[in-house]
Amino acid sequence: MEKIGPHLVGLKIKSDVAILWSRDSANAISFMPFTSNALMPWEPGRATAGYDSLVHQIHRALYDMNVSADFVFPETKDFSAYKVLIVPALYIADDALLQRISDYVKSGGHVVMTFKSGFANENSAVRWVRAPGPLREAAGFSYQEFSNLEKPLSLKGDPFHAGADNKVSYWAEFLMPDHAKPLAYYDHPFFGKWPAITENHFGSGTLLYEGTYLSDALQKAVLKHALDAVALTGPDQQLSAGIHVTQGVNRMGKRIHYYFNYSAAEARPAYSHEAGTNLLDGKPIAKNAVLAVAPWDVAIVEEK
Length: 304
Known about the structure:
Layout (H helix, E strand, L loop, with lengths): L4 H4 L8 E4 L2 H9 L19 H14 L4 E4 L11 E4 L7 H12 L3 E5 L21 H4 L1 E2 L3 E3 L4 E2 L12 E7 L2 E2 L3 E5 L9 E8 L2 E6 L1 E3 L1 H14 L13 E7 L5 E7 L14 E3 L5 E2 L12 E6 L1
Parallel strand pairs: 1-2, 1-3, 3-4, 4-12
Antiparallel strand pairs: 5-9, 6-8, 7-8, 8-13, 10-11, 11-12, 14-15, 15-18, 16-17, 16-18
Helix pairs in contact: 3-6
């Protein structure tokens, strides 16, 4: 470490994706849960799905795809440093925050937003206009009705190719598009009248909205759809689940790539970045060469 330490210290990581985390929304949803079988915290059998599980699901999907993400907050004044802003269940928000999100989309940002967003103001009062309130123009839809789901539903035609995991649960909003494009419908004789997922072009950006709680695999597929659209996926996002990749820029201005092998077998991922040197063994590695990583080990490559 004494030899390579100067190459690693002070590493700066820049993420193109951010998750908007709201303490007020987390508290409000725990008080007004979206699961029909939710009980008080001290009662047995309490439903496990809530704000925290939704945020964890989204973050885990990004992690599994080797996509780094920062957390931003309702107090964040400017989201323009990010290409994609993910907004889980922003149930509590003042008009100013919703306007900043709308302006971000209009200026070329890309938002992935989930159900129950824009519903109540900063005082937890339901807005007198149709949801999602001030976000209606950016989202391209409105709704005034919703329902709990007694059991999971499929999406018609498996639009995101999730196979057996093509399921949604707990909550369904009856989205009425103004000019948003429906991406998926509920596979149900009544709920199927309304889209479950929509996408809207607004200004120079887009807002993708999930009106229901997606399965883990479906959430990952929807996020990949959003990332693909803005060219944030590449070879690192195709690696097997046991390989985790992260990168940053060191004090010398050189890019550093970490390849972690979280498995009991040797991994041989393709190194898709510019030619460099594996700092741990001093061997050069060319772009698109195979990088051998021992079980439970790591390779650290510094670009030339």
